[in-house]
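## retry 2 of 3
previous attempt timed out at serialization; input unchanged, resubmitting
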Amino acid sequence: MQTFTLSNNAGLTIQLMEYGAAVTSILAPDRNGVIKDVALGYDSLRGYIDGTAYMGAIVGRYGNRVGRGSFLLDGKPCQLSRNEGENHLHGGWKGFDKVIWEGTFLDDAEEPSVMFRYISPDGEEGYPGTAELTVTYALTAQNVLRIEYEGASDRPTLMNPTHHSYFNLTGDFTRTILGHRLMIAADAITPVNKGLIPTGEFLDVTDTPFDFRTETEIGARINTLNEQLDFGNGYDHNWVLRKSAGQVRKVAELYEPESGRALTVFTDQPGLQFYSGNSLDSAGIGKNGIPHRRRTGLCLETQAFPDSPNQPRFPSTILRPGETYRQTTLYQFTTR
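## retry succeeded, writing output
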């Protein structure tokens, strides 16, 4: 199994591996030029194999949840594996995060890149059709990690992969992310039931703890008495991003005041799942022997909406033969 390193002259270094097509390390400078790792993970491959937190991986075929793991596709019932209670999460028991991808280093002096390729066989975790997906990570001179996805299938299927790094911009994994400040360009979320499956409605974020339209400290309202926060044990929700999907646009910005590190997210996807790491205390021992603890990392997952196959108001995630699935997401690391 191969590992890869992408680096530039601006001080950013990103390490990746074929298992899960995962990002294992992001070394980023703070406002004073001090470089620290800002992506949670493990010191050895065994941690990723045994882990259940999807650290740094590509997840799919369907990122996020499908209620009861079941849906109708062209009028025919499909049953996926149920790996989170009665629901299907992040591709099932052995999703894209638990397979070895074929990695190829693309030697470009201006934008060093790695392309990962995986062929998902017909019936894997219940998904119909043989599907092929390539995910290319490229590092630009402007400290942008660009992730481009391209997929196809020989039968109608679902396709909604996403990237699942846990970020902590302090570079100190003993600290929580509650002091980070977050902006999300969204006026609504898709509220969920107790099983974290969307109700099919859209909830205006005005006067709620989910209003991140202006930069707000994550910990400011996370313990507010709120049914949605109770269901998620914190933030674990999909934001309905502004502007039309299909256009790469700025959708979120994360800032850590002490280090000055900032992370800006651009995507062409309609949704952003913000997960505040509420269950990380079950993720075992992380890098440098530091135990993962609750809310010591957060995810900003660009994707279609959860449970879209069962929600007629949500954008479709069906991929048909002859069509090409494409997604572009950018993570830009800067300082203030």
